[in-house]
Design brief:
Layout lengths: L2 H30 L6 H10 L1 H25 L5 H13 L5 H11 L1 H16 L2 H7 L1 H15 L2 H12 L5 H5 L4 H20 L2 H21 L12 H11 L14 H6 L1 H31 L4 H31 L5 H24 L5 H14 L7 H8 L4 H12 L2 H13 L5 H25 L17 H7 L13
């Protein structure tokens, strides 16, 4: 098996594990809190969703019976504001590590940064149940630290992608980042059954165990560059280095970062706005779908987990299939790289926004609501062929740093969105209030997508090339011992 194929699988499951830590609280919190619905709210829900009121009432009665058994140990009296603070806690400090994550990966390598981030987050997952039982604020602190440590994962991976993956394979490889969708899907579906069988605490123990298992394989199988891999074939290494060519500069010391050029770059700023808009829609759906299905549509915990998780399987499948089409279009020169990225953004942002608006107009029809959620989540998978991949296109030498800058802003949507949702739905779990949530999210997605379609680019930027007078041929040979010349060209 080729080493970049192994890297794809390890990257895929690495992001899946990372998103388990992000999302497990979203489904677990449904069973962690006492479901108390006021008479006023029940009346409103009865008027808007009459078919679901009976189920909500029966769920509440059942919950009251259960509370007599485990009231002191397993259930918490958290209002909507506190719940959304917990949901957003992971992202409160997550953005801080985005830029350092990219810089650290450029200096110390993705293997170290990605591995430590997921490994420590896995250990902290075991502390969530105890912290929740100790104090609401203690749980928030654990989630904040977990989010901080995990922040370096996304930007660090771009550095490794630039070192390992030729341009015409990039969309397909970046689809491995959408392992995050599988992680989300598995988390929601698996956790729904874990909670029903073993209680909500099991969610965090299983997530932590899987994270530690992945960390062991990551340490054993992954290397930062083809030149550092001890068992890579000469043919594969030659192919990679010939394809990447001069876009990646090899030095004994890290390249100096052109901060002014990065921060003033039109291409970077447009990419930032586009990714932030798409993530706002995705994070809102991922974090709030369980609550919406359970509290508004009246689905039970297993149904909530299933229908909240399944769309993320579809998202990854869409991402992989769409990325293969995009790579073929680039390789055959039927479309330019820029136009392929714009096509990806049309799906990822604009169509996602339209489907989110569709959620508002689905009303009490749970079938239509599920279809809208499936569609909105699925088309977001095109991000692997859109703005996310374009970061490596415009400046492969600084891809990790650029994604760090973008991630600093984009991931902040992960804690801003729950705060706004909490404000809009505080003591008002009604369809009309949730429509406000969906209108806002849909508008953000659509507007950010249109900005990239009209003004975005995937052309390599001038400041990507650093003219270094220090590096000479002798130093270059000391850095990398090049393999024998080969006429091998991989058939992709």
């Amino acid at each position: 098996m080729e080493k970049r194929t192994v890297l794809w699988y390890m990257t895929f499951w690495g992001f899946a594990i990372n998103y388990m830590f992000r999302m497990n609280i979203n489904i677990a919190i449904v069973s962690m809190i006492k479901h108390s619905i006021s008479k006023t709210n029940v009346t409103i829900i009865q008027h808007e969703c009459p078919r679901n009121t009976e189920q909500l009432t029966s769920n509440n009665t059942l919950a009251q019976n259960i509370f007599t058994v485990d009231l002191n140990d397993n259930k918490f009296e958290w209002n909507e504001h506190q719940q959304n603070v917990i949901l957003g806690a992971f992202f409160i400090m997550n953005w801080i590590m985005q830029l350092p994550g990219g810089v650290l990966a450029q200096r110390y390598g993705t293997k170290t940064v990605f591995g430590i981030s997921n490994g420590v987050a896995a250990i902290l997952s075991f502390a969530v149940p105890a912290s929740a039982k100790f104090n609401y604020k203690a749980l928030v602190v654990v989630r904040v630290v977990q989010g901080l440590i995990s922040g370096g994962v996304w930007p660090s991976m771009h550095t490794m992608t630039a070192n390992w993956i030729p341009a015409h394979e990039r969309s397909r490889f970046v689809s491995a980042y959408l392992g995050s969708s599988i992680g989300t899907a598995v988390t929601y579906i698996m956790c729904g059954y874990l909670i029903a069988t073993f209680g909500w605490e099991s969610v965090f123990y299983v997530s932590g165990g899987l994270g530690l298992l992945w960390s062991i394989f990551w340490i054993l199988l992954v290397y930062d560059t083809p030149a550092k891999h001890p068992t890579i074939s000469i043919r594969e290494r030659t192919y990679i280095e010939n394809c990447i060519g001069k876009t990646i500069q090899i030095r004994s010391k890290p390249l100096p970062i052109p901060w002014k050029s990065l921060l003033l770059s039109k291409a970077v700023m447009i990419n930032l706005v586009t990714q932030a808009g798409g993530l706002w829609g995705l994070f809102t759906l991922a974090a709030q779908a369980p609550s919406y299905f359970n509290f508004i549509l009246g689905l039970n915990i297993k149904q909530t987990g299933l229908w909240s998780g399944m769309p993320h399987f579809v998202r990854w499948a869409f991402s992989f299939g769409f990325s293969m089409i995009c790579d073929r279009l680039v390789k055959s020169k039927r479309m330019s790289m820029t136009n392929v990225r714009k096509m990806g953004t049309l799906f990822c942002n604009v169509l996602q926004g339209l489907f989110i608006l569709g959620l508002c107009y689905s009303g009490c029809n749970s079938v239509v609501a599920v279809i809208m959620l499936f569609s909105a989540t699925a088309v977001n998978g095109a991000i692997s062929s859109g703005a996310l991949a374009a970061v490596v296109d415009i400046a492969p030498n600084y891809a990790g740093v650029i994604q760090g800058i973008i991630g600093t802003v984009a991931t902040s949507t992960g804690f801003i969105s729950p705060i706004i949702v909490g404000y809009l739905t505080f003591n008002q779990q009604t369809l009309s209030q949730w429509c406000k949530v969906f209108h806002l999210s849909g508008a953000i997605c659509i507007c950010s997508g249109l900005i990239y379609i009209f003004f975005g680019t995937s052309d390599i930027q001038k400041w990507n090339t650093y003219n270094d007078p220090v590096v000479n041929e002798k130093e270059l040979k000391s850095i990398v011992k090049k393999p024998p010349n080969s006429s091998y060209a991989m058939d992709t």
